[in-house]
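Try it yourself: sequence plus beta-L-fructofuranose, in.
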Amino acid sequence: MTILAYDLGAGSGRAIIGRLSDNRIVTQEIHRFSNDPVKVGDRLYWDILRLYHEIQQGLVIAKQERMLPESIGIDSWAVDFGLIGRTGELLANPSHYRDWHTHGVMEQMQNELGTEQIFESTGIQFLGFNTLYQLAAMRRNGSPVLKEAERFLMIPDLLRYFMTGEMINEFTNATTTQMYNSRQQDWDRKLLSHIGIPSSWFGRPVQPGAPAGHLRSSLMVDLGLPAIPVTAVAEHDTASAVVAVPALSDSFAYLSCGTWSLMGTEVSEPVITEQARELNFTNEGGAYGTYRLLKNIMGLWIFQEYKRECERDGHHASYSEWIQHTAGSAPFLSFIDPDDTLFLHAGDMRSRVRQYCRQTGQQLPDTYGAVARCIFESLVLKYRYVLEQTEQLSGKRFDGLHMVGGGIQNRLLCQWTANALGRPVWAGPAEGSAIGNLAVQWIAQGTFSDIREARAVIRDSFPMDIYEPQESEAWEDAYGRFLRLTAIPVQ
Ligand code: LFR
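Structure, out:
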């Protein structure tokens, strides 16, 4: 059965056709496109119509290549959304979660309601860009859109709506808003009314695998396509990535590695405890009754931004040249806490890295390689910190770490992760989210009986690279220094 998965990341999107041959998954990327946010004045938006155009292009290519799918699913990053008015039109361009308009809103709501109450209701980590604070920021800024809105759709819900004409909210993504109450299994009316948002905007979320309509007739006519069914997959890309972790046991740790690094474990009930709140862990909804007890780590973003800046200033090097610079530079000179808010927004990463080092009394990295080395070493040391916290919270002990996502193509990062953890890393598949998206569609069609079978087939279909830890003593020593330095308050 031929299936089509659209996987949209913060930097690029892809359309991937999946087929099964001899009980192995065969994937083919038929379309890849960049996802370029657009800045207008001080505001940062997603170019949602361009993304929809690329989705249509994917369908055109599938038709030309004679790979018409029997089901289509879309996953994307979380928290962002569009608002729909009375006539069914999108009222405004969706904002980018790195926009500054939410500045200070989370802190204000924490004061008004108490962090305990918000966490108790939602089990979701405090990130200033969560949908709750984006809507509260729109309210604070008097956005006229709120007066006209009648429906709320997350990014994949919205694109799916453009395709099918049906407005359906999906569960895994809904949980990331910090407006969904996992105990009551519904949107949290108290939180919504606190920010003055009517609960009528929200439909009860459907579970991954639910049927979600067919291509709408205008699209069928325009592209000359039949009424292909659309499936609501695990539409949060991280939820899809976790579906694709090729683990054999139920108790494993994962790291979904892309612009963000999402590290955690799968649990059957949300862990809503004081300790989870204090460590700022999250319990995002997963597929098939699971929750993703995890933490957002700033990920490759800092390096991606730094590389982009260097290119803008005329320093052009390929990814592999960057890795060579990094590997060739002196080890363990200085560290940053990648999760410091200093690094959240787009901008001058070189000076921010140096500012962090200055304020914590460390040597300032100077060369390209030294800055990159500081970023990567700090990132993998943070992985160790978060893995240990995941163990504390879940009461599990992990023999190693599964890494999935595009970041695993950086072999140095995988090796350093194993070194920092002092445990093996099992890396693969790189297209985790797209493969998880396909898997949920196959389960919905009855091709796989359940997620266990899907994971076993994924394990047999994609190569897994194994990294054993090296240079244990030097990394152990570096971890001690990292912990001391990142405990120093900055700013
Ligand atoms: C990863 C991701 C994270 C989410 C962040 C912002 O792509 O979906 O899980 O916290 O993007 O939406």
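One thing you can check immediately is this: Residues 9, 77-79, 97, 236-238, 258, 260, 262, 296 surround beta-L-fructofuranose (CB under 6 Å).
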